[in-house]
Design brief:
2 domains, 18% strand, alpha/beta, six-stranded parallel beta sheet, three-stranded parallel beta sheet
């Protein structure tokens, strides 16, 4: 059994990006600039955006955090997005989700200039991804592909089962794993909350990508020997024995499933660190396209 170490691979990617940025600086070129817009005071969102800012500092990017109050109107946010769209100094920016209830999330994501949409959420970029065209791939799916690639995990001709159909992970992964090329060329089954007899499906899978958000959902009896497991789930589960009062748990019963798996991602330390690394990679790509 091989642990797909996202922490190590993400550090490798950041080091590679830093080398490229150092070369840019050496030539006197403008370095990539990533902006993040956060609306409200959600603790998890603030922590996540903070880690993105620190990652930018590490690789030599410029970064800007735009903080807006929880009472921000949709019009105010759309005005700020247009300001970022028109700012030539900003190469890419993200809108941290979730947004407050008074704001239409889809309308906001549609307002982002596709050439600066380093999250890969704009329909134009999603459509290009579905058509195998060069574009920004959403950071978490991009990170999963990179893990499979760097560990040389064979995907051609395999049966991939994706659990969860979100626009951020499940749906794009179902498209990407079925595309021509590597990683890809697998036969994909997309499952979700209305799928019947899911154990019958997962037990036939060569690769399982779970992005459900239900702690320990995938049990050992639901998978076959030598299965490849990508656990995208990350849930805070209350635990009085932990100093923080909770533990981070994935969708997969790691202790038991890992005994049957050929490759598996841990939680934490698997897919999570890859997401920020690939956001940086998308920002570098945005900068190169604007040069």
């Amino acid at each position: 059994m091989v642990i797909l170490d996202g922490k190590k691979v993400s550090n490798d990617i950041k080091n590679e990006i830093k080398q490229q940025v150092d070369k840019m600086k050496g030539k006197g070129e403008k370095v990539p600039h990533l902006a993040a817009v956060i609306v409200g005071n959600d603790g998890a969102s603030l922590t996540y955006v903070g880690s993105k800012v620190r990652a930018c500092e590490r690789v030599g990017f410029e970064s800007t955090m735009v903080r807006m109050s929880n009472t921000t109107s949709e019009i105010e946010l759309l005005d700020k997005i247009e300001e970022l769209n028109q700012n030539d100094d900003i190469d890419g920016f993200i809108i941290q989700l979730p947004l407050p209830p008074q704001i239409n999330t889809q309308k906001v994501l549609m307002a982002v200039d596709p050439s600066k949409d380093v999250d890969g959420f704009h329909p134009e970029n999603f459509g290009k991804m579905a058509l195998d065209m060069s574009t920004f791939i959403p950071a978490t799916p991009f990170g999963i592909l990179e893990l499979l690639d760097r560990y040389g995990v064979e995907t051609k001709g395999k049966h991939t089962v994706v659990i969860g159909r979100s626009h951020i992970v499940g749906r794009p992964m179902s498209i990407l794993m079925g595309r021509k090329g590597f990683p890809g060329n697998s036969t994909v089954t997309l499952t979700h909350s209305h799928t019947k007899n899911i154990t019958q499906i997962t037990s036939q899978a060569d690769i399982i990508i779970s992005a459900l958000g239900v702690p320990n959902f995938l049990k050992a009896e639901m998978v076959k020997d030598d299965v490849i497991i990508i656990d995208v789930g990350i849930t805070r589960v209350p635990d009085d024995s932990s100093p923080k009062g909770y533990i981070i748990t994935g969708d997969v019963d790691f202790t038991n499933v890992s005994k049957k798996a050929s490759y598996i991602t841990p939680v934490p330390g698997g897919v999570g660190p890859m997401t920020i690394a690939m956001l940086l990679k998308n920002t570098l790509l945005a900068r190169e396209q604007r040069m």
